Amino acid sequence: GHRLASGTPDEVRHNKEVVEAYLGHQARER
Known about the structure:
Number of strands: 0
Oligomer: single chain
Largest sheet: none
Radius of gyration: 9 Å
Number of helices: 3
Mean pLDDT: 89
């Protein structure tokens, strides 16, 4: 795999690529 994002936990948690990778495309649109 590869690193999706770096930064503080809060920055990573709100990164659109991270959200989409873990929860799917529809979760990002909410």
